[in-house]
């Protein structure tokens, strides 16, 4: 399958650590030319296809994708009333029903907004994408750390010495079989979020006439510009990159006193002010620009403090999400950078990415590809030629900047302390078990989450699961409402002595089917959440007053996602993680493998009612109970 884009070029290096001979790899995707995946070859054999030779193929593919539809108004409103049933009181529901009836009436405000929305859909490439980018990301003012940027944990590497850290890692692209929108892939590299006073922006430098030729490397809070191309446009070999990384490593043995990168962890308005101040200085401006333009960042982290084996994985998840705080590796990041690969001296590795540009699947596809690639035969070693020392990026720290860094450190450390993370490797079974029961594995896992939550709290909650809209041109996500009337019936029955085991089995099967059918609706662009958001934003744009259904308690409850969940499947045995989206909620990300499932559960310590380890424990129990239920009550063979 071809991966085509306007200005992208992949190079991959696969090497072995000379000392331990373990298979490790380094890869990079540089935005200089485009290529076809099938032609990816070890470095030196790569034959990039010039964009000029295949003009417009990416665009042709993109244009062949359907446009995101605006779902029928009545369908969305009916479904909205349904999803409210298990989460609001009868009185609230009756009140909301009345508001919905007024809204949907012929010639009413709902109809007018729907027509405006349909007009918008005719005039734009995707009626939602720009609104979504702004609302969900660029106008969101909480720090990107924990609140927005997901981390990804890779299996630990056993380095025998510091060379391992320099030779280890990372990206590259993989494309699945479906004709999905590929736009996100072209937003990942050479791009960076830029703070603004009310709204941020994202700049993608790969589209410039002179695309970047360097990556950023950070070690001991010191930033370096590492050219990964020679002046003739040929990429550096793996050995050459290794030598360059070693030079960086050796010249930054002392930790920088001022972890400038910490500034990027701040509340966006605060960071925007500090940013304006920071780049008043010419040297600072040039250094910041170099980081922003670079293809991606490689963070060479110090080892984490030693912890017991049972909490090690959870600590690594924290390391990937936030860097562990100002005394650990948080200063070794530029959190606005879209893609940052993290390789620590102790072998923990993964990545963190800024979410505005893309969802998790394209990011893990990059990883899957390089992991696959690394299994291919060894490269021929290339001759060594002298290369200049990578440029150190310097910063002049005025007293004002120093004070901004101090404040950012304090805020970050509070956030880090507040985050409660648990990694659960559920090893009893993976997606093969639900498949063998002819059930959707995703639906099965979501029902286990519903059951776990219900068993802890005795009620159900608004649940968000990301659904991909990439079947549509410039599609991002919509929401699968995993809690439904059917899921509620199932979780209530599960511990109810009045329910027979056979009833429980039927209710579980029905709940999973309902979930799968809503998933199908969501990926076809017919879920309710983005449509309701669109109607609300349309009201704002049309300067009509916000309709009452959006000012209603039920709407607030529906949008308060105590469970914010996402499946990010990968072939690699890794798992993504993110923070909860509400103060009293959980974030749950999972990667269902064939025979086991990786989960990361997050919560906030400041909320007395939530506890990530407890939810993980109940989740494990729910999955096991559901398996037992199905195994002890097999379906009658027809
Ligand atoms: N019987 C047997 N097998 C079944 C089945 C059934 N009833 N239903 C599904 N399966 C199989 C599927 O064919 C699939 O097989 P595969 O492993 O060979 O591919 C597998 O089980 C998984 O299917 P399912 O669990 O139903 O989920 P999915 O792969 O369709 O994914 C979503 C569902 C919602 C995760 C996906 O549609 C999606 O939108 N992903 C993007 C999410 C996203 O963007 N996350 C990132 C946010 S940052």
Q: Could you characterize the architecture of this molecule?
A:
This protein is of the alpha+beta class and 638 residues long. It has 2 domains: 258 residues, no CATH class; 277 residues. 39% of the residues lie in helices and 16% in strands. It contains 20 helices and 18 strands. The strands form 4 sheets. An 8-stranded mixed sheet has the order 11-7-6-8-9-10-3-16, sandwiched between helices. β17 and β18 form a beta hairpin. α4 packs across α18 and α15 packs across α20. The relative contact order is 0.15. Coenzyme A binds next to α12, α15, β13, β14 and α17. Belongs to the carnitine/choline acetyltransferase family. Its EC number is 2.3.1.137, 2.3.1.7. GO terms for molecular function: carnitine O-acetyltransferase activity; carnitine O-octanoyltransferase activity.
Keyword list:
single chain; eight-stranded mixed beta sheet; alpha+beta; 2 domains; disordered N terminus; binds coenzyme A; 638 residues
Helix/strand layout:
Elements: E1 9-16, E2 23-30, H1 57-64, H2 73-84, H3 90-104, H4 109-123, H5 129-138, E3 151-154, H6 162-167, H7 185-188, E4 191-194, E5 201-204, E6 214-219, E7 222-227, H8 238-250, H9 268-278, H10 282-293, E8 297-301, H11 309-322, E9 339-344, E10 349-353, H12 360-374, E11 391-393, H13 399-418, E12 419-426, H14 432-436, H15 441-457, E13 463-468, E14 477-481, H16 485-494, H17 501-523, H18 529-541, H19 553-558, E15 563-567, E16 575-577, E17 586-592, E18 597-604, H20 612-632
Parallel strand pairs: 6-8, 8-9, 13-15, 15-17
Antiparallel strand pairs: 1-2, 3-10, 3-16, 4-5, 6-7, 7-11, 9-10, 12-18, 13-14, 17-18
Bound molecules: coenzyme A.
Residues 359-361, 431, 435, 438-442, 466-468, 477, 480, 516, 519, 523, 566-568 line the site of coenzyme A.
């Amino acid at each position: 399958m071809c991966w085509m884009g306007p200005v992208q070029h992949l190079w991959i290096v696969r090497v072995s650590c000379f000392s331990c001979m373990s298979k490790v790899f380094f890869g990079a995707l540089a935005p200089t030319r485009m290529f076809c995946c099938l032609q990816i070859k070890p470095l030196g054999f790569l034959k990039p296809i010039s964009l000029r030779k295949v003009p417009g193929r990416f665009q042709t593919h993109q244009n062949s994708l359907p446009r995101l539809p605006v779902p029928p108004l009545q369908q969305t409103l009916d479904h909205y009333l349904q999803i409210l049933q298990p989460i609001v009181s009868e009185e609230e529901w009756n009140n909301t029903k009345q508001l919905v009836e007024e809204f949907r009436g012929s010639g009413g405000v709902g109809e007018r907004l729907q027509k405006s929305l349909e007009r918008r859909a005719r005039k734009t490439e995707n009626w939602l994408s720009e609104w979504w980018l702004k609302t969900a990301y660029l106008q969101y003012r909480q720090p990107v750390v924990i609140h927005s940027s997901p981390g990804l944990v890779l299996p630990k590497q056993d380095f025998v010495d510091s060379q391992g850290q320099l030779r280890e890692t990372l990206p590259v692209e993989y494309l699945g079989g479906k004709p999905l929108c590929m736009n996100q892939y072209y937003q990942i590299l050479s791009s960076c979020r830029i703070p603004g006073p009310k709204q941020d922006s994202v700049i993608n430098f790969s589209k410039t006439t002179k695309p970047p030729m360097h990556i950023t490397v950070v070690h001991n809070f010191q930033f370096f510009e590492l050219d990964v191309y020679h002046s003739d446009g040929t990429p550096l070999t793996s050995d050459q990159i290794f030598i360059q990384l070693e030079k960086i490593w050796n010249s930054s043995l002392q930790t920088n006193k001022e972890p400038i990168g910490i500034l990027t962890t701040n509340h966006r308005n605060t960071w925007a002010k500090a940013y304006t101040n920071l780049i008043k200085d010419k040297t600072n401006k040039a250094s910041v620009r170099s980081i922003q333009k670079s293809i991606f960042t490689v963070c060479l982290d110090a080892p984490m403090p030693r912890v017991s084996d049972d909490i090690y994985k959870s600590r690594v998840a924290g390391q990937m999400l936030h860097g562990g705080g100002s005394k650990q590796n948080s200063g070794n990041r530029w959190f606005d950078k879209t893609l940052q690969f993290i390789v620590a001296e102790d072998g923990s590795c993964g990545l963190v990415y800024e979410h505005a540009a893309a969802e998790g699947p394209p990011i893990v596809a990059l990883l899957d590809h390089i992991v696959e690639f690394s299994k291919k035969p060894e490269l021929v070693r290339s001759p060594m030629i002298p290369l200049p020392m990578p440029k150190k990026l310097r910063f002049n720290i005025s007293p004002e900047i120093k004070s901004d860094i101090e404040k950012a450190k304090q805020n970050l450390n509070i956030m880090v302390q507040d985050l409660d993370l648990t990694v659960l490797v559920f090893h009893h079974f993976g997606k093969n078990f639900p498949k063998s029961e002819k059930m959707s594995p995703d639906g099965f896992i979501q029902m286990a989450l519903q059951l776990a939550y219900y068993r802890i709290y005795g009620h159900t909650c608004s649940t968000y699961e990301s659904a991909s809209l990439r079947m549509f041109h410039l599609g991002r996500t919509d929401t699968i409402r995993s809690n439904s009337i059917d899921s509620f019936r199932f979780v209530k029955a599960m511990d109810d002595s009045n329910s027979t085991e056979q009833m429980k089995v039927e209710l579980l099967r029905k709940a999973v089917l309902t979930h799968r059918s809503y998933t199908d609706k969501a990926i076809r662009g017919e879920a309710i959440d983005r449509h309701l958001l669109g109607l609300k934003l349309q009201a704002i744009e049309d300067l009509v007053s916000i309709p009452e259904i959006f000012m209603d308690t039920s709407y607030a409850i529906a949008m308060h996602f105590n469970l914010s969940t996402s499946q990010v499947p990968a072939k690699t045995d890794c798992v993504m993680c993110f923070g909860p989206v509400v103060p009293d909620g959980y974030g749950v990300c999972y990667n269902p493998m064939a025979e086991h499932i990786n989960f990361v559960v997050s919560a906030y310590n400041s909320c007395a009612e939530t506890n990530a380890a407890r939810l993980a424990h109940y989740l494990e129990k729910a999955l096991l109970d559901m398996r037992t239920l199905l195994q002890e009550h097999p379906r009658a063979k027809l």
